[in-house]
Each structure stands twice: as C-alpha cells, then as structure tokens.
C-alpha cells in the first residue's frame, strides 16, 4: 500500500478526536486525506476519506443516538477504526482492507431507520468527497469513477458549490466564448 | 461541408436536469448539422442512469431524443474507431502525465473526456475541415486543459498545497479545441428567441439553472449573461 503511513497517521488522529467527540477536527482530517486522494487516487485513501467524513457527520447528529442498535453500531465502528490502526501498524494490508470491508458490512447489516440514516450519510459523504476532488482539479468523470458515483449526482452537487467561481477557472473572456458559439451556429 | 457539434456528458445531463431538453431540438434545427456523442457519453447519459431510479426519468427523456436522432453516436467506420481509440489513449496518457508532484503523476482525465477530444480530431479529418470540430463541455478540468493548462497547474498547486512540475511540451497536444458550455447554447437559444417564455428574466434564470446543475461558469460571467 502506497500511503500506509499517511493513512495510519490520520486514523490515529481520528481516534483521538473521536474520544473527545471533536467532529470538527474529524472533518478537517477528512479534508487532509482529500489532498492526498486527489494526487494518489488510491482506493484505500479514498475509502478512508469517505469513512472519516461520514463518521464526523454521524457523531455530529444527536438524533441518531436514540435509535435502536445505535450503541452496538457505534462501538462496532470504533472497533473497526482501532483494528484498521493495528493492521496498518503491523503493515498488514490484507487485514486493513478486510476492516474497510467490515465497515461496509457493518452498515449493510443495520436495520430500521438507522440503516437508512447511516446509508444516506455514507452516500452523501461519497458525493461530498468527490466534489472536493473535482474542486482540486481532477476531471468530473475521473472523480465520479474513483468514488463509484454517477456523473448526474456529482454534477448536481458540484454545481451548488463555488467551484466555478474560482478566478483561475476562467480561461477565456466571455465575449470571446460567445463569439465562438455564434460562429458555430452561423447560418 | 457537413457541420458537427460534439457533446460531452455534462451539458446533456444539465439540460435534462433543468427540464429544457426541448431547446436541444430547436438548437439542432438552428445549427443545421449533427449533434454527435461518443459511446462513453451515451453510457453516462442514458445506459447507466436508466438503472438508477433517481435519474431514470432524465435518462429516458434523453433516450427519446437519441432515438429521434436529435443527438446520435458519431458514424465511424472500423478504421476510424480504431484510430479514435489510439488518439484517445494518447490524449489520456499525455494529460495524465502532464503534471507531476514530487512523487508521481497526477491523473487528470478519464476515457470519456479523452474520447470526446479524440472524436473532435477524427471528425476534422473525416470532413476535411481546417479546424477541430467544436465541443460542448461543462466540466472545468478538460476545458482548462485545452484552453490554459498553466492556469490549471496553478489552481492545482493552490488547492493541493504542493508544487507541481509540468511537462509543457504536452500542452500543444491540447491546443486548437473550440469549447463552448451549456450556457453558451442557452445564449444562442435566447438570441434566436427559442426560449419561448415572455418573462424577460427567463434567460438569466436559465443561466443560473445551468450553473447550479454543474456548468463551470463563474458568478461574474453568469451575472454578465443576466444583463445581456
């Protein structure tokens, strides 16, 4: 695994922030992972970015905690992160990937409202992280493929962010682009 | 000489999500040529979203236009398809090795985007045009890659907080592509009275509708359009 040390470092910090219930710190950690994910485009790094961002959203919302199975789910999630840390410390990539898969199974195994809530959080986390990678300069199609989401959801989400407003994004004077369009449609 | 306009996936998705697909048909009549797509784009705008309940309606609407020939797959023979694949691979590999961080290349684009650019070159040859065939592209990276790769490099350095080494000898491969966005199509529709609604604010609203569904246009540009 190319990014073992970086992922390990982030997960250790995530666990510490989790102990303090500091969801803002966890969100920031997920942003740090995104810089790396944009460059390395490594599936493991992307999975961790999504997982950490989803975690920050999950602990931020109090209403989930009243749901049946919450305690079991949350302790499973924490254990999952700790097991990922141990696997990475031991340089056991297979075990680390098993833990990423176990995290998916944990969510898949939920029932009732919690399954809907958490599933939704993870889906939104994927779209949010995809939008961030697109913002970093990677193309929309490349990004959508990396995160396994459709171009439709990424276009819709990224349109509502300020990605197009960055001054560096403007590569041609608007009048010049209009001239090209008029030329194309000239009768 | 026959005219062609190549569509990337983004503008078709955008028109569909904004409920203004009727404009595409009217624009095609105005264009007096063919709106064409690659296989990769068809997959992204029709085949795949047809399996996702949330986007199925939009995809079916696009499929109806596709079935009526409003936009169609580029008509390429076997040799041209093989040539397109070669150019696509070359463009994609070149774009994906253009920028390097300390340790590795930054992969910028994927098959679909590279195929649209390759199709532009193939169609240029096919119809003996002096220029590449124009493209409609809403996403930012491909447009920047073609129009100002140096700005794309600066943007990535700023966002990634790292230095990027560019192989500027690759820049020339992406020169000469003419790109417009869905907003420029809306502008043409507005100028030719195709929008069909009386409210004077409709054009500005259309521009913002397109911006908020993924067209990479700045607030300043959108506001300028609103005043035209």
What does this structure look like?
The complex is a heterodimer of chains A (187) and B (228). Chain A is an all-alpha fold and 187 residues long. Chain A has 9 helices and no strands. Chain A is elongated, with a radius of gyration of 19 Å. Chain A has one domain. Chain A starts with a helix and ends with a helix. Chain B has one domain: 5'-nuclease (Rossmann fold), CATH 3.40.50. Chain B has a 5-stranded parallel β-sheet with strand order 3-2-1-5-7. In chain B, strands 4-6 form a two-stranded antiparallel sheet. In chain B, α9 packs antiparallel against α10 and α10 runs antiparallel to α11. The model of chain B has no long low-confidence stretch (mean pLDDT 95). The chains are: A mainly alpha (187), B alpha/beta (228). At the A-B interface, α2, α7, α8 and α9 of A face α1, α2, α4, α6 and α7 of B.
Q: What's the CATH first level of chain B?
A: Alpha Beta
Give a count of the beta strands of chain A, DSSP E runs of length 2 or more. 0
Give the spatial strand order of the biggest sheet of chain B.
3-2-1-5-7
Provide mean pLDDT of chain B, rounded: 95
Protein chain pair with the most extensive contact, residues per chain: A-B, 44 and 70 residues
DSSP helical segment count of chain B: 11
Q: Overall 3D geometry of chain A?
A: elongated
**Strand and helix order of chain B:** EHHEHHEHEHEHHEEHHH
In the residues of chain A, how many domains can be counted? 1
**Any idea what the radius of gyration of chain A is?**
19 Å
The largest pleated sheet of chain B is described as: 5 strands, parallel
CATH architecture descriptor text of chain B: 3-Layer(aba) Sandwich
| Total domain modules of chain B | 1
Indicate the radius of gyration of chain B in whole angstroms.
18 Å
Content-based structural category of chain B: alpha/beta
Oligomeric organization of the protein chains:
heterodimer
């Amino acid at each position: 695994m190319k990014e073992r040390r970086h992922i390990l470092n982030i997960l250790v910090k995530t666990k510490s922030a989790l102990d303090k219930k500091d969801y803002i710190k966890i969100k920031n950690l997920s942003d740090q992972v995104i810089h790396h994910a944009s460059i390395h485009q490594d599936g493991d790094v992307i999975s961790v970015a999504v997982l950490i961002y989803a975690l920050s959203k999950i602990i931020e919302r109090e209403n989930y905690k009243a749901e049946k199975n919450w305690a079991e789910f949350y302790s499973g999630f924490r254990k999952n992160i700790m097991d990922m840390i141990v696997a990475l410390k031991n340089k056991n990539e297979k075990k680390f990937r098993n833990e990423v898969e176990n995290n998916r199974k944990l969510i898949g195994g939920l029932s009732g409202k919690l399954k809907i809530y958490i599933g939704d959080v993870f889906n939104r986390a994927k779209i949010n992280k995809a939008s961030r990678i697109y913002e970093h300069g990677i193309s929309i199609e490349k990004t959508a493929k990396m995160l396994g989401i459709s171009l439709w959801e990424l276009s819709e989400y990224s349109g509502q962010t300020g990605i197009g407003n960055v001054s560096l994004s403007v590569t041609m004077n608007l009048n010049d682009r209009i001239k090209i369009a008029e030329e194309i449609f000239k009768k | 000489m026959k005219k062609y306009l190549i569509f990337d996936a983004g503008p078709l998705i955008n028109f569909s999500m904004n409920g203004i697909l009727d404009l595409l048909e009217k624009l095609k009549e105005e264009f007096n040529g063919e709106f064409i797509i690659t296989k990769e784009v068809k997959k992204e705008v029709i085949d795949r979203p047809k399996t996702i309940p949330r986007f199925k309606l939009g995809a079916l609407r696009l499929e109806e236009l596709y079935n009526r020939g409003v936009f169609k797959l580029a008509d390429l023979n076997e040799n041209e398809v093989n040539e397109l694949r070669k150019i696509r691979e070359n463009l994609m590999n070149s774009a994906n090795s253009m920028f390097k961080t300390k340790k590795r290349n930054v992969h910028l684009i994927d098959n679909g985007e590279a195929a649209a650019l390759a199709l532009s070159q193939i169609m240029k040859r096919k119809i003996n045009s002096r220029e590449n065939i124009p493209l409609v592209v809403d996403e930012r990276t491909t447009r920047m890659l073609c129009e100002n790769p140096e700005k794309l490099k600066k943007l990535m350095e700023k966002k990634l907080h790292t230095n990027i080494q560019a192989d500027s000898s690759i820049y020339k491969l992406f020169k000469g592509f003419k790109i417009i966005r869905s907003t420029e199509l809306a502008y043409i529709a507005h100028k030719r009275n195709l929008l069909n609604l009386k409210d004077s604010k409709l054009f500005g609203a259309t521009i913002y509708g397109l911006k908020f569904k993924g067209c990479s246009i700045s607030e300043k540009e959108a506001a300028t359009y609103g005043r035209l």
